[in-house]
């Protein structure tokens, strides 16, 4: 039995689309197809019906999913407990995206130093992207993750710490840079826009994409670059207007930029903590409380 083949089977069953499953797993679509064929050969029956237009699960595939997924989840949870028991050093291991680490962890350091009510337990930071945090939680390599809103399964609990509004990032000499009051996305339609890539966080990107389309923005005018620093540099060099979650304001190191909060309702991106559902502890609860306090403080200050 190949556990990776099971993970791919679960992803296809969730997405009912081989291409989307490949994106979620960050592997080639051909690898997804090969894995499903391998699993079907081992089990002796098809798991999915495939046509050129759609994928649907077979009755046999549905039974396999219902029987194996709980057992697979339990295996991961017990393995995570064993890893935590064997390697834990009396401090929480906090996975965080690089950008949220820069924006939020200095506040967590200050809160830890005070050692009073609301202070978190001892912790160690580990920079990693959202999909890496999910894998690290399941393997027991971290205790808590800090990320933009993720797509998680029932093994992981997602806790929304706060919702960060979006900001438009403009050159100081852009005609839209003044006034510094909130701006609507419709005012950006027809201009080249720059965002962080879909691959960093598909859930967050999808939310921004829906907001853009709803505001009449042609997605063909939207470029993706690797991270906030790259977004701000592209804006400074005149390649377009950046759209990014608001904590970017506190991270900016590029001169000559202006920031305007996006006024549209419902387009904020949630800052979340993620924990393995089966291993929540008092220390984890304390960390979640501290992260919520720090996140709220940073976003309210923008």
UniProtKB/TrEMBL annotation:
Which one Pfam family would you cite for this protein? LysR_substrate
Q: Name one GO cellular component term.
A: protein-DNA complex
CDD domains hit by this protein: PBP2_LTTR_aromatics_like
Q: Which keywords annotate this record?
A: DNA-binding, Transcription, Transcription regulation
> What PROSITE patterns does its record include?
HTH_LYSR
Cite the HTH lysR-type domain residue spans from the record: 1-58
One of the entry's Gene Ontology molecular-function terms is: DNA-binding transcription factor activity
What does the similarity note say? Belongs to the LysR transcriptional regulatory family.
Name this polypeptide is given: DNA-binding transcriptional LysR family regulator
| Species name | Microbacterium kyungheense
């Amino acid at each position: 039995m190949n556990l990776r083949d099971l993970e791919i089977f679960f992803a296809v069953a969730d997405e009912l689309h081989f291409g989307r499953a490949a994106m979620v797993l960050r592997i080639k679509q051909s690898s997804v197809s090969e894995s499903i064929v391998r699993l079907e050969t081992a089990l002796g029956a098809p798991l999915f019906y495939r046509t050129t237009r759609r994928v649907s699960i077979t009755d046999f595939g549905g039974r396999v999913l219902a029987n194996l997924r709980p057992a697979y989840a339990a295996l991961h949870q017990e393995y995570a407990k064993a890893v935590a028991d064997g390697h834990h050093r009396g401090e929480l291991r906090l996975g965080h995206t690089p950008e949220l680490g820069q924006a939020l962890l200095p506040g967590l350091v200050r809160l830890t130093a005070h050692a009073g009510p609301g202070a978190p337990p001892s912790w160690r930071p580990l920079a990693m992207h959202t999909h890496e945090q999910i894998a690290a939680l399941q393997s027991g390599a971290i205790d808590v993750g800090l990320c933009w809103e993720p797509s998680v399964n029932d093994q992981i609990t997602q806790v929304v710490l706060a919702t960060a509004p979006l900001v438009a990032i403009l050159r100081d000499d852009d005609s839209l840079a003044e006034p510094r009051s909130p701006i609507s996305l419709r005012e950006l339609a027809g201009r080249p826009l720059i965002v962080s890539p879909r691959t960093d966080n598909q859930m967050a990107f999808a939310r921004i994409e829906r907001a853009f389309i709803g505001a009449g923005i042609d997605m063909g005018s939207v470029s993706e670059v690797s991270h906030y620093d790259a977004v701000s540099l592209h804006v400074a060099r005149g390649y377009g207007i950046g759209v990014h979650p608001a904590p970017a304001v506190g991270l900016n190191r590029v001169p000559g930029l202006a920031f305007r909060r996006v006024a549209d309702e419902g387009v904020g991106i949630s800052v979340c903590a993620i924990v393995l559902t089966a291993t929540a502890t008092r220390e984890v609860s304390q960390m979640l409380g501290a992260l919520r306090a720090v996140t709220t403080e940073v976003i309210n200050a923008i």
